[in-house]
Amino acid sequence: MTLAITGATGFVGQTLLDRAIADGTEVRALARRDQDARPGVSWLAGDLNDRPALMRLVRGAEAVIHVAGVVNAPDPEGFELGNAIGTLNLIEAAKTAGVGRLIFVSSLSAREPGLSAYGASKARAEKLVMASGLDWTIVRPPGVYGPRDKDIFEMFRMARWGVMPMPASAGRASYIHVDDLARLLLALVPGGEELSYRIFEPDDGREGGWPHGEFARAIGSAMGRRPLVAHLPGALLGIAARLDRSVRGAKAKLTPDRASYMSHPDWAVSEGAKVPETVWTPQIETRAGLAATAQWYREAGWL
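Request: output the structure for the sequence above.
Response:
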């Protein structure tokens, strides 16, 4: 089998690539910059707005796993171009090349498109996928953590400092280890009655998700600390986001757009959107996964 993968140089994509290679799958992967040669991987230069490159990516592939996306942009147009228009370009290339199967990595934020430009762009991309005529499956991951992650990593760093700002105490969210997510994406490739034309929301198996304070303390435990958890209402999160932007500019992690959807009280996965257990179940218990991730950060010199 030959898989076409977008976003293979990113956090989720790198783990997906590792797993696909370990399974003996031939991979074609799109990258904006030169990459080191790897057995089983054909790197193609280009991006989601490079239509000739997309054609080279998908031609002859049995399936496409679309991981690439924009999670941080200065304006709504940036999200629209990277997430909606980029997905449309990939769909058109797949249809032209005769590739039938598409697995699209969306986001839980697509459930509430009115909260953020990011969520709105992912919701539009989902509609394009569903109207594509391809054999599709959409995956809406919750918070994804694990080695190489740079977003939830911020929480590990704050735990080391001893204070962890979090959304309001009444909120909750689901999480998943990146390796469990990668295994799921590969398990979805065959499609079929249980998997095709479905939207799945996978997680770590914890029913109802994690209250924000409990997840913060779990990260603190992984860091060997007992941090003070400071629950911030939406207005204060917005102020913190503006401060982060003023200090770190384009490298800010807590953007106003992100603060808006973080303030929503329920980012737990939906019971009705579970993956069939005969296809996939999570293998990494979250507390153990957080501890292993903290150790990876230390060994990599991030902490």
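Residues 48 and 89 are 7 Å apart (CA to CA).
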